[in-house]
Amino acid sequence: MKTVFYLYFGRIDDLSFKSSNGVVKKILGQIHGCIELGCTVYFGHLNQGNKTIYKFDKSYNWEIVEQSSVANTVSIFSKFSALLNGHIHYSAFIDFVDRVKIDVLYIRFALPSKRLLMFLQYVKSLENAPKICVEVPSFPIYPNLTRIKKIAYSVSKSAIREFPKYVDRIVTYTSHANVYGVSTIRLSNGVSLNKMREHPRVDKKNNTLVFIGVASLRFWQGYDLFLKAMADYFSNNRNSNRTIQLVLIGEGAAKSNLQDLVAQYSLSKYVQFKGELNAIELDEEYRNADIGVGTLALSRRTSEVRASPLKHREYCMYGLPFLIDSRLEDPDFDNSFRYVYKVFESSSEIDLFDVVQWYDSIASDNLYSDAMFDYASKHLTWESKMRHIFEELYS
Predict the structure, then answer these.
(1) At what angle do helices 310-317 and 22-36 cross, to 10 degrees?
(2) Which of 53, 270, 338, 365 is the most exposed place for a label (fewest CB within 10 A)?
């Protein structure tokens, strides 16, 4: 049984699946996957000068085993200097790695820095030093940084060059085989089946199909394309006995534009903006939905075609056939997976009348939702994803 120490330095308000923070859900999913593999898991977190270390038990409950304050910088100059040198006080965790024998140190990526490098160097100097994994969710990260972080990133290139000395593998969700000179473990997102509640899908008696989109409301989601397709559907199929509705879960910069489009296309009675929901509320919406709306315009954000959006996996877990951009390469859903409908970014190509027919052909099999859940339980769990990491790490 391995002992894993997982480090993360972003904001956490609620360390539970009730959180609406997608990163927190992913971290907890990875931790739960490790637990299912028999690992002992500690989770270290540093935010706003407060260090907290949690220990998880086999029932996924956690207890705080260490908590303290860490000196923080205050002036603008000192903050900028700290950013260049690594504002995260990695040294705060040295006492812990000295006291607790760990097998794997897993760090969800922050900017490379001298302080990070010194911490990794120290960990690797320990007797029976652990394997070190650094997760780089997206790469290259430079285009996604703020201006000041771009400056810091440029200054920290010397630290990046030292990565191969101390980092065993980099975990990435991209197609890159090598990041910062370190061989990668290419991963895709997973789901935690323990989140799947024992509630049946709602048995509908009407002819309304409910589409659901669960994501931050950003322009690369392509929801604007779907709204245009809805307008075309109602304009060209007014004699159809099938009504469609769209429920959007989440917040984001594109919300006001989407609301304007809803008004422009006269879709107010067919589109609902639910905002951010907790796990119980989201579960209810999933059980009332029929079809998921996945990522439809990823090319607006990046040239990287390989992606594994979490919502695709949740749609599958809940037994919802779903739509995705035809150019998106999701490694867990190849062309033989019949419950995915691929659409093109051009709105004229999103034919919702054809989508409805496709869905009806799937729904003619009463067990299709069970089949999707079975696929998720075999291929999409965080247990299977973390097993892959350990196999690669120790191969």
Answers:
(1) 60
(2) 365
CA–CA separation, 127 and 129 (whole Å): 5
Q: How many beta carbons lie within 10 A of that of residue 394, not counting itself?
A: 11
Distance of alpha carbon 32 from alpha carbon 167, whole angstroms: 23
Token digits of residue 40: 């002992």
Out of 3.40.50, 3.30.70, 3.30.1490, 1.10.10, which CATH number does the structure's domain 3-190+382-393 have?
A: 3.40.50
Fold for domain 194-379?
Answer: Rossmann fold (3.40.50)
Question: Is residue 389 within 8 Å of residue 187, measured between CB atoms?
Answer: yes
Helices (H), the chain: 22-36, 76-85, 94-99, 114-125, 147-155, 157-161, 163-166, 223-236, 255-264, 279-288, 310-317, 352-363, 368-379, 382-393
Comparing 135-139, 143-147, 205-209, 244-248, which segment has the lowest mean pLDDT? 143-147
Q: Tell whether the model's pLDDT for residue 260 goes beyond 90.
A: yes
CB 130, CB 105: distance < 8 Å: yes
pLDDT, residue 86, reads 44
Tokens describing residue 41: 């898991």
Inform me whether the pLDDT recorded for 83 exceeds 50.
no
Is residue 58 within 8 Å of residue 47, measured between CB atoms? Answer: no
CA atoms of 210 and 371, how far apart (whole Å): 20
DSSP code at position 380: T
Sheet holding 322-325, edge to edge: 271-275, 243-249, 208-214, 291-293, 322-325, 340-343
CB 305 within 8 A of CB 328: yes
Please say whether the beta carbons of 270 and 243 come within 8 A. Answer: yes
Q: Determine the average pLDDT of the residues in 39-48.
A: 90
